[in-house]
Amino acid sequence: MLIQAREQNSQVAIELTPIIDMVFLLLVFFLVATTFHQEEREMQIALPVSKSSGPISAMLRELVINIDAAGGIIVGGRQVEPEALRTMVAEAVAANPEQKVTLRGDRATAYSNVVRVLDICKSSGIQEPYLDTVLE
């Protein structure tokens, strides 16, 4: 009779506290381990809107060239002159013939500034520069 009373009182219960703790620990781990911003993408550039843009794929040796609203060329967080950019791109192409270049032009900049950087890229050996936009 004592055995029957114990069987009736014992109920199976799943403790959720350790599971919730583990989920929060994993969340904190991934937040800390993830790179939030790349230096090239931290610039205050207002990208133009596009309806068919795709996600940005970060390539290992991708060169990101920013053009601010005033037409300044920024690479790696520092302002560069057009001739310095030409040398930089030519050296990158010499090291890697399939060098990827992403061009991020501010929507307020004159189109001639974007064309100037595209010309530099094409004359330095970049076959297909990628123009970055944001999805509408």
Structure in words:
The structure is a single chain. With 136 residues, this protein is an alpha/beta fold. It folds into two domains: 2-33, no CATH class; 39-135, 2-Layer Sandwich (Nucleotidyltransferase, domain 5). 38% of the residues lie in helices and 16% in strands. It contains four helices and seven strands. It has helices spanning 2-9, 17-33, 82-95, 111-123, and strands at residues 49-50, 63-67, 73-75, 78-80, 101-105, 130-131, 134-135. It has a five-stranded mixed beta sheet. A two-stranded parallel sheet has the order 1-7. Strand 3 (73-75) and strand 4 form a beta hairpin. The longest helix has 17 residues, at 17-33. The radius of gyration is 26 Å and the shape is elongated. The N and C termini lie far apart (72 Å).
Spatial shape: elongated
Number of helices: 4
Number of domains: 2
User: Architecture of the largest domain in CATH?
Assistant: 2-Layer Sandwich
Helix content: 25-40%
Number of extended strands: 7
Mean of the pLDDT scores? Answer: 82
- Remind me, CATH topology of the largest domain? Nucleotidyltransferase, domain 5
What is the H/E string?
HHEEEEHEHEE
Largest sheet geometry? 5 strands, mixed
Distance between the termini: 72 Å
Briefly note the structural class of the backbone: alpha/beta
Low-confidence stretches: none
Spatial strand sequence of the major β-sheet: 4-3-2-5-6
CATH C-level class of the largest domain: Alpha Beta
- Evaluate the radius of gyration: 26 Å
Q: In percent terms, what proportion of residues is strand?
A: 15-25%
